[in-house]
């Protein structure tokens, strides 16, 4: 019987070793040749370069360049994590127009988990031995700051081996407001309770004009960046995201990525970038169509090419589907996120994917793509390398 390992190696051996060179040569001779030259020589791309790439219809050229940049930056390892998600409340005062998750306190389906309910969920999760607990939720005015501290302590008590990645920059700002503490003081208190790192949600699109139409009550892009900068200066690592495929332009996407790149130059605190395709179902933008696979692949490639100081570009299979996430591995991505097990935010907006993928699925997807599966923890320490 042929093992997965030998099958993957055989596929790699059968590939024409000059195939990539010929593809790169073709791109160099095409309309994007000057940009390709900069990518191949390791020079930083400009805003104008990013807009040209974003407006280009040559998907394969973008893929060739992004794959080259990915291989040079991080090699052939592709990461995944054994994690669980916890959405503790969907009651939210912001009620962003693009969001299908948030509820008024008296709306059907509104919830706020008690600490006992959270403890019960964590007890169930012990059977999975997750290395990460990912926590995000709404801005619920009825929950005091102490609730969040006790939630983290509860998770840490029951799953002491799990890294807690919790609370977006928007939530951190909210906790600062309700507690009367500074951002730094909030982060210190939460760290004492068990917080390990911050997720990247809430970034959406930084352009103020677009943000006003999407989420008028949410903190602006400048404040989002400042919360992350503060966290980085305190030694926290964080993620970054971009919500795309709604009313933004290509230039908005490029500007968003460049702002992230600038902060990464300054602090080096970002772990990974996650492009998030907009799902319009059950939102005020339900009339919009979902992003195409073509646009999803272009966006991943654009992120890899512009974010030259980020190691990890993550494809969130919940939003992309596992099959499309697998294809992004040839367009600059090197992380497929994790097992998840329960997720409400994307599914309230119409995501039709399962809420759980076993580790075996990631092994198969990554091996089939000719890459090396690596199980990681939140901070990209290697737990097991399947080479």
Short summary:
This protein has 387 residues and is an alpha/beta fold.
Please explain how this structure is put together.
- Helix content is 46%, strand content 13%.
- The protein is α/β, with parallel strands linked by helices and 387 residues long.
- The protein has two domains: 16-73, no CATH class; 79-385, TIM Barrel (Alpha-Beta Barrel), CATH 3.20.20.70.
- Helix 12 links the parallel strand 6 (237-244) and strand 7.
- Helix 11 (221-233) packs parallel to helix 12.
CATH architectural label of the largest domain: Alpha-Beta Barrel
Radius of gyration: 21 Å
Number of strands: 11
Category from helices, strands and their pairing: alpha/beta
Number of helices: 17
Binned, the helix content reads: 40-55%
The overall pLDDT, averaged over residues, is 92
CATH domain class name of the largest domain: Alpha Beta
- Biggest beta sheet summary: 4 strands, mixed
Low-confidence stretches: 1-15
Strands across the major sheet, in which order? 9-1-10-11
Shape: globular
From the 3D structure, determine the CATH topology of the largest domain. TIM Barrel
Instruction: Give the total of domains.
Output: 2
SSE sequence, one letter per element? HHHHHEEHEHEHHEHHEHEHEHHEHHEE
Quaternary structure annotation: single chain
Strand content: 5-15%
SSE diagram, text form:
Blueprint: H1 4-14, H2 19-28, H3 33-40, H4 47-55, H5 59-74, E1 77-81, E2 83-86, H6 115-125, E3 132-135, H7 145-158, E4 163-166, H8 169-179, H9 183-193, E5 197-198, H10 208-214, H11 221-233, E6 237-244, H12 250-267, E7 270-277, H13 293-306, E8 312-313, H14 317-320, H15 322-327, E9 335-338, H16 345-348, H17 359-368, E10 372-376, E11 382-385
Parallel strand pairs: 1-9, 1-10, 2-3, 3-4, 5-6, 6-7, 7-8
Antiparallel strand pairs: 10-11
Helix pairs in contact: 4-12, 5-13, 6-7, 8-9, 8-11, 11-12
């Amino acid at each position: 019987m042929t093992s997965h390992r030998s099958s993957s190696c055989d596929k790699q051996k059968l590939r024409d070793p000059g195939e990539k060179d010929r593809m790169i040569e073709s791109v160099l001779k095409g309309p994007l040749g000057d940009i390709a030259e900069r990518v191949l020589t390791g020079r930083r791309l400009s805003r104008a370069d990013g807009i040209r790439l974003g407006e280009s219809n040559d998907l394969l050229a973008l893929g060739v360049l992004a794959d080259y940049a990915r291989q040079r930056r991080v090699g052939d390892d592709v990461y995944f994590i054994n994690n669980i998600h916890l959405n503790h409340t969907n009651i939210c005062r912001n009620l962003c127009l693009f969001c299908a998750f948030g509820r008024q306190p008296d709306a059907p389906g509104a919830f706020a988990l008690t600490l006992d309910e959270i403890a019960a969920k964590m007890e169930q999760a012990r059977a999975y031995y997750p290395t990460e607990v990912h926590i995000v939720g709404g801005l619920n005015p009825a929950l005091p700051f102490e609730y969040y501290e006790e939630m983290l302590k509860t998770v840490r008590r029951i799953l002491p081996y799990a890294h807690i990645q919790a609370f977006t920059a928007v939530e951190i700002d909210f906790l600062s407001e309700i507690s009367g503490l500074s951002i730094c003081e909030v982060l210190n208190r939460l760290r004492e309770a068990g917080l390990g790192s911050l997720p990247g949600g809430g970034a959406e699109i930084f352009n103020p004009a677009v943000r006003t139409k999407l989420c008028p009550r949410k903190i602006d892009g400048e404040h989002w960046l400042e919360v992350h900068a503060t966290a980085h200066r305190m030694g926290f690592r964080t993620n970054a995201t971009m919500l795309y495929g709604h009313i933004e332009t290509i230039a908005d996407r490029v500007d968003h990525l460049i702002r992230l790149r600038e902060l990464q130059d300054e602090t080096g605190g970002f772990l990974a970038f996650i492009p998030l395709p907009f799902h319009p179902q059950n939102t005020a933008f339900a009339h919009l169509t979902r992003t195409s696979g073509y646009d999803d692949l272009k966006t991943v490639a654009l992120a890899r090419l512009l974010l030259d100081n980020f190691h990890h570009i993550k494809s969130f299979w919940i939003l992309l589907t596992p099959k499309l996430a697998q294809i992004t591995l040839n367009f600059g991505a090197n992380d497929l996120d994790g097992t998840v097990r329960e997720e409400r935010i994307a599914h309230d907006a119409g995501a039709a994917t399962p809420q759980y993928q076993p580790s075996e699925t990631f092994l198969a997807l990554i091996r089939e793509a000719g890459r090396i599966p690596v199980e990681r923890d939140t901070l990209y320490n290697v737990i097991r390398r399947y080479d």
